[in-house]
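From: lab user (bench 3)
To: helpdesk
Subject: output format question, protein + iron/sulfur cluster

Hello, I'm new to running complex predictions and I'm not sure whether the block I got back is the full result or only part of it. Here's what I submitted:
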Amino acid sequence: MVGNVPVGGDAPITVQSMTDTKTADVEGTLKQIYALAAAGADIVRCTCNEPEAAEGLAQIVPRSPVPIVADIHHQYKRALDALDAGVACLRLNPGNIRKPEHIKLVASEARDRGVPIRIGVNGGSLDKDIREKYGDKVTPEAMVESALRELAYFDEVGFDNVKISVKASSVPLMIEAYRQLSEVTDAPLHLGVTEAGPPPNGLVKATAGIATLLAEGIGDTIRYSLTSDPIDEVRAGRQLLESLGLRERKNVDLIACPSCGRAEIDVYAVAQQALEAFGERELPLQVAVMGCVVNGPGEAGDADLGIAAGNKRGHLFIKGVNAAVVPEDEMVDTLVEWATIIADEGIDAALAKVDVDKAAREAEKDRQLLLQEQGDDANHAGARVELMRKRT
Ligand code: SF4
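Helpdesk reply: Thanks, we reran it on our side. This is the complete output you should expect:
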């Protein structure tokens, strides 16, 4: 347990992030923690790098909506301070708290208070002697050995309330390190690609590493380490877990067509507007924005609701059934309005409020109009094929 959040075993996989404020700035840090929790963070980590940060934690912990983990590097005394502050978990980096007596002192204090510790091995700050043993290289074996050495110190004082991470900025390296680690321990594993960088590249790297391991059944809690607003980390983590079916949907899952020659609207802009309009609203629905009424309602027929453009109008559909027609500039507002109705009252009740036959007739009218205007081949694929054939 990290505070009241279970980690490991059959517990849902949790999303973590880290504040980027000075922890001594209590109000600023709490504001960010609340925003992270609202975006779906289950656990939040704050740095505890100086005495003022530890004092800040003493005020933050009782007011935080989620359990707080103190991030400790170099100074074991800050770990003891953080325990006094009442944190739900410590994160220690074995590469930079080196003295066994310090490690064991922190572990026994954590043991007495029932507070777990994450052993946070980091490829970039691996123990010097272990690194040398492996030819001055960071290898999966070296990272696992660092974690096991720390575990052995904990064992000496009868402490095993741990989770472990072996993060690296190289995706293949972290994948292999976690695979090897999962073979030698049953402790819960915290997954991450460290210093993944700014989105979109950082998102891709972190997803490649974390998703690969989750798909193999490895991992109990995750953090996207992005060079970006920590809110983006939480959103990415939630999205990944929801996409893999590992967590229930919390907010809207917005899907949209990629747009093509048939599009009757600027699909990118409308999808972005819809994303902003839904924001953090807790509407656990899949919502579609589709560029044309010719193919949109059919292609997004599995979505809970969606809207497709045609003839300057928006055609609302609910579970693939045409439900209403609205002016094009009301498409986004209509989606939000009906998403709220569906979330509150359900699909059947929403459909009972509309004239589906009329909506279907209007949609068919605009569909035919578009087909007449654009023909069956709005993307000109047939013309291109003709061109090729002429050449041969
Ligand atoms: S055919 Fe219509 S729904 Fe499909 S990609 Fe093109 S605009 Fe979007």
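A quick orientation on your result: The chain is about 45% helix and 15% strand. Let us know if anything else is unclear.
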